[in-house]
């Protein structure tokens, strides 16, 4: 295993290939690092400059007298072997190679990457990359990135560690940070010449700030090690959310051009069943699952209710709950009577709950019913759909939900279902909570089911272990 410690916690960083062309990748790496709260030493290396933005520029990493923990190489691929040799001679502990043009680019690139492997073979220098988009350290509020949208001041730290092959899907998920999904790290080791996905996986399993691990991966080397690590994560009660990509015939061919790796054999993930693995089928599901685990950790239970004022909507969501194995337990006779009293309607109330459009005329009936359902203690999860905009109803309901969310008696699953108007104030109100809300009902229900099932499995495991200990 290659250690990631000096990669993510370096006391000094050298940017090799730094440039004053700040609109280009090499220039942006320096600018983005300066935006960060990185507190260590930053050294710039480029023989074409004496200074960049008033900072001294060294002609070579060998000219830096102080120790260098991490070197970031962003130079043309043909110069990378020479630069890496200098890093090894300097005894740089970790090197991140952002430069592309290696095994993903054809025979010449494959040869260059093999040369890089030989250079670090048997040395203490660990290499992350090449062809890597960098990494984000949300806990430390810094990162190595050439993204023009890198804004560490807006980082919302949390407990989700993300590992992705490539930058595009990784950043698509990271954008959920703006909604409230909190991350610990984003790692993307590119072609995995030295540091691998498994090394990143093992790091997050042992990292105390990471509670949930999210994998968006094209292929896995060392499969036996991967499944061993998966079980370690399960023992540590860290759910592993997986979105596998590159499993169709045409996409396996594309992996070869993306990572320069043959992927003729793809793990049949449909057949892989491990209690610690939560499989997702879309970016939407990935974000939903991660957000639930990040916000609520382990589910309190599986008792679930649907709270609605629209009959067809409640029926539709009940179908989805049935599809994904969420049981809707009946309302108690006491709750049914309270709903009748509050609404003034003499009808049979059930779960799914349909308050009918009578609440249009008096929104206090809507909010009071939700509060009574929440405080009854009968339900661990309450699904609340917003089918469409009705005057101020959605805003009033959101305000009530926001207030009840602070009490944490139940987990709320708000679902905004309108296929047109989504610019309403109700969404902004719930955004303030930094807690999950949804725009796709299928994703919401399916993710809630997977979240509950994982938590129930862990709970049963704990109970089994306790019985075993007591019987000894």
Automatic annotation (TrEMBL):
A molecular function (GO) term: ligase activity
The entry's keywords: ATP-binding, Ligase, Nucleotide-binding
Residue span, CoA-binding domain: 7-102
UniProt KW Ligase keyword: yes
InterPro entries xrefs: Acyl-CoA_Synth/Transferase, CoA-bd, NAD(P)-bd_dom_sf, Succ_CoA_lig_flav_dom, Succinyl-CoA_synth-like
Name used for this protein in its record: Acyl-CoA synthetase (NDP forming)
Species of the source: Cytobacillus firmus (Bacillus firmus)
